[in-house]
From TrEMBL:
CDD domains: BCAT_beta_family. It comes from Chenopodium quinoa (Quinoa). Its EC number is 2.6.1.42. The lineage of its organism: Eukaryota, Viridiplantae, Streptophyta, Embryophyta, Tracheophyta. Pfam families: Aminotran_4. One of its GO terms (biological process) is branched-chain amino acid biosynthetic process. This is Branched-chain-amino-acid aminotransferase. It comes from the Eukaryota. NCBIfam families: ilvE_II, PRK13357.1. The modification N6-(pyridoxal phosphate)lysine is found at K190. GO terms for molecular function: branched-chain-amino-acid transaminase activity.
Amino acid sequence: RGDENGYVDIDWDTLGFGLTSTDYMYKMKCFKDEEFAEGKLIPYGNIELSPAACVLNYGQGIFEGMKATRRENGKIVFFRPDGNALRMKKGAERMCMPSPSVDQFIDAVKQTALANKRWIPPPGKGSLYIRPLLLGTGATPSVAPATEYTFLIYASPVRNNYFKEERAALNLYVEDQFDRASRGGVGGLKSITNYAPGMKPLTKAKNNGYSDVLYLDSVTGKYVEEVSACNIFIVKDKIISTPPTKGTILPGVTRKSMIEIARDQGFKVEERQIAVEELLEADEAFCTGTAVAVVPVGSITYQGKRVEYRAADTNSMFKKLLSIYVGIQNGQIEDKKGWIVEI
Ligand code: COI
């Protein structure tokens, strides 16, 4: 189905990052202490849940974010889907949930992308954002792992940019009142419980004209951690630094890829604690994530001090790394690492 080119009839130039519902979603269930066995595509729509579902009452749920992209040659590709599959497995273990195997996960996201193919934007116009969810759907009035689990995947076409700034640089506000993650908690996995507590600081920052919030560590309040929905890098004297993923920081697939790309180019990358004062001295800063892709930071404000960066000039480290990342994604640069998975 679709028009003569196989596309749904929508205006691809006005895509946002909101939900556009598509044709199919994928669903697979299993009981506690069992393994996921077989799932299927079903028409996209609401799901029915017990009011006592563990996910609704106690937040037993994790999610992933991935993109299926259409290349100029018509091929549909994913970027490192095994990274998402493994992260879901690890997150499930922490949240006392069974998880699909890596192969089941990849097969399911491929099926979801193909079933919704007419919604995958034309090359350059965006991608099909794919959202796998793993939910404790069994009823549990007491605090205990659910007796039944649902792996659900839905998809929505989105533009390339998550932020409304489009290609402009982000203005970040360093939040020193609210924390995102605590030691021993679940900041290092995509638990659904990590996101709602960030809505208040995010709303405050947006109301004050900032693009997003940059969080500090919750133990000392001295070190940079991450932004609401993405990781952060700084560059000083051509050395790239990013906070280490030691439990409170989401181990982003794009983060990991940028580190590898930079090292392959001969640049030094340090995964280390970054004191908040270092932000004031940095030459550049940029953010990475599946939804946000790779975006430059234009300014960071910390306790009333605002520092501006030469974010996106042609000689910036950001631009160099971005062009390689984009080249590998769109096929103009050879994928020597097996990152691209064609459907
Ligand atoms: C992604 O980058 O795909 C994410 O899952 C972040 C999300 C909170 C927008």
